Predict the 3D structure of the following.
Amino acid sequence: MLSSVLKSRWLTFSLLALGLALLPFLINAGLGRSWVRLLDLALLYVILALGLNIVVGYAGLLDLGYVAFYALGAYVYAWLASPHFGLHLPFWAILPMGAALAGLFGVLLGAPTLRLRGDYLAIVTLGFGEIIRIFINNLNAPFNLTNGPQGINLIDPVRLGSISLSQPLTLFGYTFSGVHLTYYLFLLLVLAVIFISMRLENSRIGRAWVAIREDEIAAAATGINTRNLKLLAFAMGATFGGLAGGLFASFQGFISPESFNLMESIMILCMIVLGGMGHIPGVIFGALLLTLLPEALRYTGDWQRNLLGQIYVDPADLRMLLFGFALVAVMLYRPAGLFPSARRRREFADAKG
Amino acid sequence: MSAPNLDADWTPLLSVSGVSKAFGGLQALSDISLQVNAGEIFGLIGPNGAGKTTLFNALTGLYTIDRGEVRLQDARLDGRKPHQVLQAGLARTFQNIRLFAEMTALENVLVGRHARTRSGVVGAVLRLPRTRAEEADSHERAHALLRRMGLAQHAHRLAKNLPYGDQRRLEIARALATEPKLLALDEPAAGMNAAERTALRELLLQLQADGLTLLLIEHDVKLVMGLCTRLAVLDYGVKIADGTPEVVSHDPKVIAAYLGDEAL
């Protein structure tokens, strides 16, 4: 009995691993290389969404300035690995630095908001997010730190020994493209972030976060140091944000303040809400859906031309329209998100048994 | 059998002296002093709005008091944060049940273990041996508490879906998981039917027998009179009487507070 359970577990695990390893090949063959690139970007958003999920999903702190930490991670990477300051440190040194600095800022920006909840917290964090973006936009004088609105260009790609993720690599007679190699790196980090999230969720710390979300006063009266645990949630979320930012900078090779606007924070929040707040598979699903679906909706232009002879609605507009409808529909019919959480499933099983 | 001389025989656990608290112009608590001895069930009664719950909130760090001193054995509790008060050994329940609604009964009790456990992020992520041992211990204690409260079959149900009486008991289980020296219960029998009240009474006596000290706010006079070793009566934020149930129930000021002056 036990061995068969273990066997089936290993089977699922192996199949999943094989599927994830082969996915970029299939997508490359079926949809083209630009979709592998999108897949990379989607993985980046999975990291971001899982980071914000710790703050919003677990601890229940509505943070609308999350993109600030993403920006910090990206700029740390750009400073230390581009011609901007002439520094070219290796990625394995910069990524942790960016993540740590973002985590530190998570604590610094979290500390003044400790007494705020709900809407008030959202407004203040929104303000912090904008402050960071405006700083980045204007810190090209008196000392050129961020190069202002022009952004920082020619950022080094991730390089491991002689392998660079911006160049194709030929191995066993097959040529892996840069986006393909990037996929494996991002996948590895996504798996690490999922692992950390899962372990935290089922721990003393994770339970304390959920308790704070459910009832902060009762949590304090049950012995939880709400101040420290809220700061820890901000720090953990910001660390993941900073990590994603560093990856983004290396992946794009170019960053500017434009990439870190409020809309970005809202999109990441939407991923969580849509997928299922506080539920890891739901959040991953939401992140993948909201990165890939808008791209897929670009094809509506082609469909219109093929079916109707000409383009009646600009695909870019239609995309946002359908996207808006989808969000409203989910909020109306699946207010808890698209993925039911394990908590609810367990509850359902108990009610029947 | 004569009543034991409580003040002489028993050691003080909680000492409240001269506690005052005002909200704007309203003096919610005026110069409250009382002493709860180790091992007793101490009742706090009074008409609605007398300041009982305010006193609870002041003792447990939810309100900062204006004047006075609160001690649990040698530890000062006044000016402490709620989690520090709990750490010192004073746990409480709430009048309007405050469970973690979206967590299971088991998880609610596990949260109660938070103050008595220590593992952090690194321990949780790497599942260090110490963390694993701590988690196993917490689960064992939590299950034992659920069994004791008759909630074992509800371990994996969400707290919000439990019947009312079970929610009350779950809140007590969560408080007990923190290993308190003194457990403060804010109207634990509110909304319970006669059978549930009898069961609650048995439970509180059992807890007392196990060496726990209880501080009890309760409206049900019959329950209080039968259960408590001593009582304090609050009215308009002032302590108007204290002593054994026998003494308090015959105090003219208490009768006046409950029934009105014309009853005298």
In short: Chain A has one domain: 23-273. Chain A touches chain B through 31 residues (CB under 8 Å). Strands of chain A lie at 81-82, 87-88, 159-160, 163-164, 169-171, 174-176.
